[in-house]
Amino acid sequence: MNNAQLTDQQKNQIQEEFSKNPDLKHITQTVFNDESLDGRSKEGRAVRAFLINNNLTFTTTLAARVEEIELEGGQKEFLMSNNVERGMNALEITRLAFKDREIQPLSQQHRTVMDFLRRYRPEIVDDNEMITNDKWSPPKSLSRAIKKVNDWAGQKFDEISIQTKQKKMMETLLFYLKSPRFVHFINQYSIIADRDLFESEFVRTVWDKPDLTNDELNLYITVCTNYVRQKHIQQRIDKLNTMLNDTDNERDLTLRLTELIKATSEELNQCEKRIESLTKDLNGSRQARLKARGEQNGSIAALVEAFQEKEERDRMIMMAEMQNKLIEEEADRLESMDDYKARILGISKKEML
Questions:
Q1: Which end of the chain, N or C, is less packed with Cβ atoms under 10 Å?
Q2: Which of the listed ranges 141-145, 243-247, 326-330 does the model predict with the highest average pLDDT?
Q3: CA 260, 264, 269 angle in degrees (round to 5)?
Q4: Residue 42 lies in a domain
């Protein structure tokens, strides 16, 4: 599409707006009085061309593209050296390699070092540290739901032979996984192992519960966040115990580590109690609801059964009456035949009936 032609008035207005705000989108929308326009529209391209031709440096609202980082020779040498050992934190390794304590998780430097270690020193990379900046999106197909249930709940469903009841459960699971609260929480985890733990525990506990209320669904999500928290607390305890074992009987350090282990163990205990309490409440409320529903359904089922039995009896009586009527009509037809045919048949209406 060709660029829009600018009038002299528009050109003057572009220069005026540029002096106030050099943003290309702002200038385009103001000059053409249309908030739906941006720098990619034909009007925006016309404004862009005019600014460039007049050596006016404009800005855009698009975020600057993060350039890829190439590791230098010294950094690669450090990463391949004995200074980097299994069990070290990848972020700390990155900060040491770049000699920058301000490097943040998921930064380009962090991802570059993780990629390098995963390729050349996979024994260093802990699966629990593998990170991602991709947004998690809920599955949409029945086959994806079935695979998740098979993988995480130990089932062996097949999309072709799955029963109607289980198919309904899979469809409901897809609905659960689209819950805004679930999507929000799972995208809070940048570590892949945390995402997998959160999602697997959720699928494992809700896939066969298509009757959950919104409140119950939210509580199950809370339970799963506590499973992830429990994992991290246990990892801290393990690291503290390792540090305690490596101390050379330094009294002050030993006491400090012992206090930290005790406090962290109490934190773990509280987390486990929350999981137990929430699970107990969820199971209890759901069982009570299902029991009430079962009693109601039981009384309705009894009525349906009685109705069906009466309907079946009436149907059998009607069929018998129709059959007798057909026999009688056939007997009347035979009796109306001439005597010769009747003698050949050797029957009478009375005998037929």
A1: N
A2: 141-145
A3: 150
A4: yes
